[in-house]
């Protein structure tokens, strides 16, 4: 397993170089996992991309580096302490920073000789390939899809020049991942939506959720999806509700700030029983917070957002696979229960790339509304055992007219203030939770069957927690296991209670300051926590950091 | 009234301007030979926004100020629906002001009938965006001192293709305007002046009736500058009729996906396309 950092200022081409290398490593058979750490600015500052690759599965990032590509002096200064003793810092001879591990090549001069200073990035690509024992066999194929045709020949020449400029240091290991997908959480959500039959996506740009809208827009003509940039998030969510009412599978996406504007409509979806899927790609709040960084601090908020009481579901995404399949499932559940389903992602998951098996769009077949009804008069909100009433599509169901109402209403949909109808309608809606609770997915169990310490987490900490459990179980007397929640509200309790009973210690691991999962579990069970590992600086916990903090006993007690 | 679109018991005050407006809407739909199951009447919240409750069509009673985004999305979903928004001046120009502006830009083929009584009725008599200066209310105790919005002028300036003003007291004229607005291809705004008998003691039936006059036959509706001047006439005399009309490309023709292939609601997801997209990530 190798770990490479590419760092520099915004606008220096980190993303392009990283994207080419990620593709090249995957093409050579490696499993790749990469994250982006960038500031909220278009030029300058310090940004980096962190890329792990190897022949075995990779679930998260690591802070122990084998190599650094430094595009500026800051990169050397900020990251050299994370570099292994035998690691390298590849950079141009113009850099003034000093370190005995530096590997300086006059990339800028070579690039100028080749004909364009911008091909310097490709020189570093070539050098990295040589250092890690890779061949040049996939270079032409990958560059064809990554650079403009006019610059193709120059870039090939640059890769070769870089390759020839250094000696090999690390050994290539054969992996079996060349035919897998290399995909970000963001793209996986967009594809999940498209596969689920979403035909209308309305949103207002907000980091880190904008990528979903852009990804769907790029696919919109092929997949026949109308992507509408709304004037604000209130419009975005009300548009999604309007399209859904009219029979089109619809979705909206935002981050916490935009979600705050959507909350009234969330309750509208609840009372009017109009299927709605909202994805909240979390970033650190409150208010503007840290726009381009990560946090898991919206759980409390989304599970109680909007006035009044109505059934809802919250699903947290744990991985790129989850991002695809759980988005499909969210669409299906929203339709079958006629409720709002909130999908929680975050910047870490959205922006990270991972190598995954090709998704199967046929695994989940989302439900669609019916086009006929039985009975003499069509009643949109007919009382039923399950709480779900027949949903017809306006203009598509014979002579029936379909009424949607944000006021309390009778079975037909007409406004009412009857105490009896009100009580029956609230009961009808809340009854949906009975069947929903039966199909909740239990949390993912990780680690040894016989354990002393149970770690509890949710969402995108799945990967880091998985790696932490592996690290912790490598040595020491205590054995560790973890439960990582995907379906999180309503809270699936069966496996949680089983495992909690046998645990000597229970520790929650969360990317927030108040332990929101622990709070939810305390509300709903009698489980007591012995400590917590919390982080809220906008940077994701790594498996190493979790293991270290647990070993040191640096756990913050609630 | 009409059998097709039914008559319901309402919660409006006797003498409310909403009665003639809903009667005219039913007559207009009947005369246009619309089928109730293909019409969607949408609204937000307010006295006027109760309109969808009192007409036999598909009905969308949404959130305060948010009827426009929901209505345009319903039209995007199914172009075969006749989508009409009936709601008040507060819902349309106050709480929903941003949506009003931006849906003019989208130009989705829907009709927007604003029941404009220059007051908030549902919340019992506070100033609305169109209230005149000097109007004394329970909140504006020293008289409203904010400039009233001129929605007709604003809509023309923002690029709307069909902008009209009407009066609930001139029913034949209102029906004629409503039919033209519904038939117009694109976003059509009709600002319908109506008295609020309970709360607006300034702009009464008599106040409007004395001032409104129908635009003459020879008035040319396609001159934007002239239309803006006409829209600004709101005082001793108030012109009613189509102030501005211009053909414009509608959303459904501008959007490549909607322009071909029939209503979005009828389109199926092609698994082969999804598989091809997935494979592009290998």
TrEMBL record, chain B:
Keywords: Iron, Iron-sulfur, Magnesium, Metal-binding, Oxidoreductase, Thiamine pyrophosphate
Enzyme class: oxidoreductase
Cofactor: thiamine diphosphate; Mg(2+); [4Fe-4S] cluster
Gene3D superfamilies: 3.40.50.970
EC number from the UniProt entry: 1.2.7.11, 1.2.7.3
A GO molecular function held by the record: 2-oxoglutarate synthase activity
Keyword Chaperone: no
Ranges of residues in domain Pyruvate ferredoxin oxidoreductase beta subunit C-terminal: 196-256
Domain Thiamine pyrophosphate enzyme TPP-binding per the UniProt entry, residue ranges: 47-192
NCBIfam families, per the entry: PorB_KorB
Name of the protein this chain belongs to: 2-oxoglutarate ferredoxin oxidoreductase subunit beta
Provenance organism: Pectinatus haikarae
Record lineage: Bacteria, Bacillati, Bacillota, Negativicutes, Selenomonadales
């Amino acid at each position: 397993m190798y770990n490479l950092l590419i760092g520099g200022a915004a606008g220096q081409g980190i993303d392009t170089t990283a994207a080419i290398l990620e593709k090249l490593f995957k093409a050579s058979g490696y499993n790749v996992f990469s994250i982006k750490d960038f500031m909220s600015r278009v030029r300058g500052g310090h940004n980096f991309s962190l890329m792990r690759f190897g022949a075995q599965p990779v679930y998260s990032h690591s802070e122990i580096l084998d190599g650094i590509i430094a595009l500026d002096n800051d990169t050397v200064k900020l990251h050299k302490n994370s570099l292994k003793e035998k690691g390298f810092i590849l950079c141009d001879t113009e850099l003034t920073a000093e370190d005995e591990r530096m590997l300086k090549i006059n990339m800028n001069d070579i690039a100028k000789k080749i004909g364009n200073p911008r091909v310097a990035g490709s020189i570093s690509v070539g050098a990295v390939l040589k250092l890690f024992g890779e061949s040049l066999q996939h270079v032409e194929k990958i560059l064809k899809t990554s650079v403009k045709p006019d610059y193709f020949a120059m870039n090939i020449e640059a890769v070769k020049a870089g390759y020839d400029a250094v000696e090999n240091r690390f050994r290539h290991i054969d992996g079996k991942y060349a035919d897998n997908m290399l995909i970000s959480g963001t793209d996986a959500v967009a594809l999940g939506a498209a596969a689920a039959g979403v035909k209308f996506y309305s949103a207002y740009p907000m980091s880190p959720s904008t990528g979903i809208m852009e990804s769907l827009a790029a696919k919109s003509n092929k997949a026949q999806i109308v992507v509408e940039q709304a004037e604000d998030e209130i419009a975005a969510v009300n548009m999604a509700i309007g399209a859904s009412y009219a029979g089109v599978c619809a979705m909206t996406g935002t981050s916490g700030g935009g979600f705050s504007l959507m909350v009234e409509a969330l309750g509208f979806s609840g009372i009017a029983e109009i299927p709605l899927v909202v994805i909240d790609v979390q970033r650190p709040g409150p208010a503007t917070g840290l726009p381009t960084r990560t946090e898991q601090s919206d759980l409390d908020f989304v599970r109680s957002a909007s006035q009044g009481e109505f059934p809802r579901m919250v699903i947290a995404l744990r991985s790129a696979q989850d991002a695809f399949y759980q988005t499909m499932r969210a669409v299906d559940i929203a339709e079958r229960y006629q409720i709002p389903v909130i999908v929680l992602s975050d910047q870490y998951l959205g922006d990270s790339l991972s190598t995954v098996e090709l998704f199967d769009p046929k695994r989940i077949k989302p439900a669609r509304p019916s086009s006929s009804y039985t009975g003499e008069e069509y009643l949109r909100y007919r009382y039923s055992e399950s709480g779900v009433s027949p949903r017809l599509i306006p203009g598509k169901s014979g002579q029936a007219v379909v009424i949607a109402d944000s006021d309390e209403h009778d079975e037909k949909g007409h406004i009412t203030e009857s105490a009896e109808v009100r009580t029956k309608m609230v009961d009808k809606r809340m009854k949906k939770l009975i069947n929903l609770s039966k199909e909740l997915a239990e949390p993912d169990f990780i680690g040894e069957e016989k354990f002393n310490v149970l770690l509890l987490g949710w969402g995108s900490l799945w990967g880091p927690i998985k790696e932490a459990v592996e690290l912790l179980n490598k040595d020491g007397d205590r054995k560790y296991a973890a439960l990582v929640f995907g379906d999180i509200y309503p809270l699936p309790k069966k496996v949680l209670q089983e495992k909690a009973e046998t645990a000597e210690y229970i520790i929650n691991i969360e990317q927030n300051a108040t332990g929101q999962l622990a709070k939810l579990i305390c509300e709903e069970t009698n489980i007591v926590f012995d400590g917590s590992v919390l982080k809220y600086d906008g940077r994701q916990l790594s498996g190493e950091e979790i293991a270290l903090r647990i070993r040191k006993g640096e756990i913050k007690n609630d | 009234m009409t059998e097709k679109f039914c008559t319901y018991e309402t919660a409006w005050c006797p003498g409310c301007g909403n009665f003639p407006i809903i009667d005219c809407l039913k007559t207009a739909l009947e005369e246009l030979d619309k089928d109730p199951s293909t019409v969607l009447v949408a609204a937000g919240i307010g006295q006027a926004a109760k309109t969808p409750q009192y007409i036999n069509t598909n009905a969308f009673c949404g959130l305060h100020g948010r009827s426009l985004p929901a209505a345009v999305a319903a039209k995007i979903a199914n172009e075969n629906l006749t989508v009409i928004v009936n709601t008040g001046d507060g819902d349309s120009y106050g709480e929903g002001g941003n949506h009003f502006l931006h849906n003019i830009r989208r130009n989705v083929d829907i009709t927007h009938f604003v029941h404009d009584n220059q007051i908030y009725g549902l919340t019992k008599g506070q100033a609305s965006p169109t209230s005149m200066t000097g109007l004394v209310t329970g909140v504006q105790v020293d008289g409203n001192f904010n400039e009233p919005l001129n929605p007709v002028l604003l809509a023309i300036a923002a690029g709307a293709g069909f902008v009209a003003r009407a009066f609930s007291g001139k029913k034949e004229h209102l029906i004629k305007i409503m039919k033209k607005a519904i038939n117009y291809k694109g976003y059509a705004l009709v600002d319908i002046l109506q008295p609020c008998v309970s709360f607006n003691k300034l702009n009464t039936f008599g106040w409007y009736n004395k001032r409104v006059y129908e635009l003459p036959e020879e008035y040319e509706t396609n001159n934007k500058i002239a239309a803006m001047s006409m829209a600004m006439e709101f005082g001793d005399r108030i012109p009613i009729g189509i102030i501005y009309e211009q053909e414009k490309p509608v959303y459904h023709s501008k959007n490549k996906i909607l322009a071909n292939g029939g209503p979005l609601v009828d389109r199926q997801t092609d698994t082969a396309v999804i598989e091809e997209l997935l494979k592009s990530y290998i």
